[in-house]
Amino acid sequence: MNNHWSDYWEQGHLTSFGESFTSNYTGVLNDIWTPRFAELTSDFKVLDIATGNGALPLMMSDYLKNRSVEGEVIGVDLANIKTDISSVKLAENLNIKLLSNIDCIKLPFEDGQFELVISQFGIEYANLKKAVPEALRVLRTKGRLALVMHHKNSLILRRNRRILSLIKSDEIEDIFNLLSGIVDKMGEVKSKQDLDRAKQDQSCEALRKQLNTSIGILAERDEEALKDCELLNYVATLFQTGLFWKMDKKQNYIEFARQQLKTLYVRLSELADAAQSESSLAEIINLISLHDASLDHLSSVIDENRDVLGWNLLITKQ
């Protein structure tokens, strides 16, 4: 797996689609998982597939505080998991393990180990024709597989498609080239006098105007997507926090920002490819019947604004 997901989780994100939908994530999605956690019996064993930074195990911990039932949840992910469980105040009746570099189409567990297997915006990044049977393999008889997956027509996908469209624009690379050119023209800036000198440099001022023009074009095209892609934050950091950095540090930061947008494009492209349609879900429903399992529930996840966030599936192993 490319390191871009490991790098992403290391930055502390709790969802695979950034922080724009945090209120939805802790609202309607929390309501989906509470009934599953309420069904757990003592000495339970739960598996969270594609756990990311452990959002679902941590949600489970919050639910189980002040409850008598106790057990274990194991979160696995193909990426490197950076969550430091020891620094989090967890429910005393829940043991959490987070395991990195685990492929969900080849789980390192024996048959029938778990009474509940869960995944939120994760398992669909794998080949579902292999991942779903593998999840069912490690489930106990009468165990449940509960999934929340990306929806082809969700608010998340629509918004991310706009970001993808924007960061494919020629103006993006133009902006990074202009930033690099401005840093070169400004030279080393160590004092207010150096800053005044740069402001009076006509070639530097011309580049600055071109930069503003390119940013203006993107803002006019899709201002919300421009904000979501973080480009404006990178520019602001360079000319505010980084104003008196050494030139080589500024150039390194520009390259860092360029790479961040490139990896954002890759992540959002993978998200778009992972999202499920009605027809792709129909294939999975047909598949589970071949593996001694049945579909108990299938619905769209709808937020308080009536926007679609994803799919909700509940499957029982016979």
Automatic annotation (TrEMBL):
Biological process terms in GO annotation: methylation
Keyword Transferase tagged: yes
Molecular function terms from GO: methyltransferase activity
Keywords: Methyltransferase, Transferase
Superkingdom of origin: Bacteria
Boundaries of every Methyltransferase domain copy: 46-143
Family matches, as InterPro entries: Methyltransf_25 (IPR041698), SAM-dependent_MTases_sf (IPR029063)
Gene3D superfamilies listed in its UniProt record: Vaccinia Virus protein VP39
The name this protein goes by in its record: Class I SAM-dependent methyltransferase
